[in-house]
Design a protein that fits this description.
Mean pLDDT: 88
Number of helices: 10
CATH superfamily of the largest domain: P-loop containing nucleotide triphosphate hydrolases
Order of helices and strands: EHHHEEEEHHEEEEHEEEEHEHEHHEE
Strand content: 25-35%
Largest sheet: 8 strands, mixed
Low-confidence stretches: 1-22
Structural class: alpha/beta
Helix content: 25-40%
CATH architecture of the largest domain: 3-Layer(aba) Sandwich
CATH class of the largest domain: Alpha Beta
Radius of gyration: 20 Å
Number of strands: 17
Number of domains: 2
CATH topology of the largest domain: Rossmann fold
């Protein structure tokens, strides 16, 4: 088995280049306790536009993550480096925030909470953690939820434009492609735009029927059955399905021209991808890692390599900002 690198170092899609912000910081303010909106609302517009994540932690300082890293929000809406100068969040503020996010109905979102997240209107994804109630090794409920990671949903259209020609063969057929990326390097943004462009038939590529198996509601960011991101007019979204059952359903019922999913991990995920390929369906997927060699050290990655599933490999980094495409490789 060998692979060839194509155009090393040439491909880069920085977050600051050609952006179209789909949803902004202000939309999430309605989901946090009113007392937290005051310091957050005082942040300057330029700071608000740059927020990637908002971190609310009980009895700890209000924090955010932006392009510069982690900063703390003071009571008067200033960014501080010292956590002692940050606005300290109370238990009551966490309780009120949870009520707003769940519309005072924990029962309706209990399944999502057990997976550690909920999705808000606008596609914003909130990681929530607390104390698990465990029985026979399974978490049955989450209590004392006092830690929230709100990831601001932003749609950046066009980031896959320069990449797309490398994902088709001479006959215009999609080549199964694996995107390898450490966390926070833009893999979901990239894979979403690949789905959108294939579905619209952009960049000289014919229009495809696309199926997204969106286990964590991150690619399409569906809310009450409606994708909050533009994933194209010919795209079906299997939202919240485990990859294994979602991929099998897509094969049996949805007749996709291409199947897209995010964050492969387990051997079960790999086996489901192998089933899709055996059915003649090309797959575009992502996996955490910083190189193909390291991906193969994990059981799922090793299984994918052994079966020669992916023809193209795309490696992302943050070297020139999130979304830097380090290299594209032909694996087989």
């Amino acid at each position: 088995m060998g692979y060839q690198m194509m155009n090393p170092g040439h491909w880069a899609v920085g977050v600051g280049h050609g952006n179209t912000w789909h949803r902004g910081f202000s939309q999430v303010l309605s989901y946090v306790a009113s007392s937290l909106r005051m310091p957050l609302g005082r942040l300057s517009p330029s700071v608000q536009r740059d927020v990637l994540e908002l971190r609310i932690r009980q009895a700890r300082p209000l924090a955010l993550v932006n392009s510069q890293g982690i900063a703390f929000v003071s009571p008067d809406g200033q960014l501080m480096a010292d956590p002692k100068e940050g606005y300290h969040v109370t238990e009551e503020e966490c309780r009120l925030t949870l009520q707003l996010m769940t519309r005072s109905s924990l029962y309706m979102v209990q399944d999502q909470l057990l997976q550690g997240f909920i999705t808000l209107h606008g596609g914003h994804r909130v990681g929530i953690s607390g104390t698990a109630f465990v029985e026979e090794g399974d978490a049955l409920a989450i209590r004392h939820m006092g830690q929230f990671n709100i990831r601001i949903a932003r749609e950046i259209q066009g980031v896959a434009a320069t990449l797309l020609p490398s994902l088709v063969d001479d006959q215009g057929r999609i080549l199964s492609t694996l995107i390898v990326s450490p966390p926070g390097c833009g893999k979901t943004t990239l894979i979403r735009d690949i789905a959108r462009q294939l579905s619209w038939g952009a960049g000289g590529v014919v229009r495809h029927n696309v199926v997204i198996v969106d286990e964590r509601s991150e690619i399409a960011a569906s809310w009450q059955g409606e994708p909050q991101m533009d994933v194209g007019p010919c795209t079906d979204v299997l939202n919240g399905y485990p990859k294994t059952s979602g991929i099998m359903l897509a094969i049996r019922a949805m007749a996709p021209d291409v199947l897209i999913t995010d964050e492969l991990g387990t051997t079960n995920d790999a086996e489901a991808i192998i089933e899709a390929m055996a059915a003649g369906i090309p797959v575009v997927a992502s996996i955490h890692g910083d190189s193909w060699e390291n991906v193969q050290l994990r059981p799922g990655g090793c299984l994918l390599a052994r079966h020669g599933i992916f023809r193209r490999l795309v490696v992302l980094s943050r070297r020139r900002g999130p979304g830097t495409i380090e290299k594209i490789e032909t694996l087989y």
